[in-house]
């Protein structure tokens, strides 16, 4: 259902306070999965969950379907890195979530806007916000792409690890709204992004959220 490198979201089932954590799958086992130590979404700090902690685990698969399953912290294991071992139930115990609202982050990213065919000349623009499902792009006054139904966004995302991911996202134009001084916002939905693209976007947004929380700029 998932593989090494995938992101899992963890929520303790019986918390003293509401908390969420993200972690990455680093190894697969029989009846278990091994992850790096989770990061608290609120504080951005590494968390050490006690053995026996019962969890709700959320993840998305290759088809972007979202699933939840019950798990438990089985312990800590030393390997190439120190890992957390989680109970992995049979696939029949996974519950599919019909719809997911991706977190939308207000962030300025340099992006190149390309036509699907040759309806307009490619140009560079800045994002107003982005999620794993779509984005809003700032358009200068006079930019004429209202008649276009689909296009491509090209962007480079740099993760904290130093990795640079180059994305080419086929996008559907949802609407164009007017801003101040005649400028506009182009709202697009990503069409069938790959699982790697979605994972990269989710990790990038998560890391930016952590940075903003540390600076007191994100609630």
Automatic annotation (TrEMBL):
It comes from the Bacteria. Keywords: Cell projection, Cilium, Flagellum. Residues 98-207 form the PilZ domain. GO terms for molecular function: cyclic-di-GMP binding. InterPro entries: PilZ_domain, T3SS_YcgR_PilZN. Residues 3-87 form the Type III secretion system flagellar brake protein YcgR PilZN domain. Pfam families: PilZ, PilZNR. Gene3D superfamilies: predicted glycosyltransferase like domains (2.40.10.220). This is Flagellar brake protein. It comes from Peribacillus simplex.
């Amino acid at each position: 259902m998932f593989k090494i490198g995938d992101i899992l979201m963890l929520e303790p089932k019986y918390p003293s306070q509401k908390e969420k954590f993200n972690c990455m799958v680093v190894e697969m086992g029989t009846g278990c999965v091994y992850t790096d130590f989770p990061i608290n979404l609120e504080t951005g700090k590494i968390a050490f969950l006690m053995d026996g902690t019962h969890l709700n685990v959320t993840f998305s698969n290759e088809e972007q379907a979202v699933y939840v399953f019950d798990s438990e912290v089985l312990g800590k294991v030393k390997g190439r890195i120190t890992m957390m071992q989680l109970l992995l139930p049979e696939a029949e115990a996974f519950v599919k979530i019909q719809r997911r609202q991706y977190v939308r982050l207000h962030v300025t990213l340099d992006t190149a806007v390309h036509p699907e065919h040759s309806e307009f000349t490619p140009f560079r623009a800045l994002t107003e916000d982005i999620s794993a499902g779509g984005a809003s792009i700032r358009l200068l006054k006079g930019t004429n792409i209202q008649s276009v139904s689909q296009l491509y966004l090209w962007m480079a995302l740099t993760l904290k690890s130093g990795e640079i991911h180059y994305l080419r996202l086929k996008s559907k134009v949802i609407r164009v709204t007017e801003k101040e001084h005649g400028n506009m916002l182009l709202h697009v939905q990503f069409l069938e992004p790959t699982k790697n693209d979605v994972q990269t976007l989710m990790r990038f947004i998560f890391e930016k959220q952590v940075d903003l929380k540390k600076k007191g700029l994100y609630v």
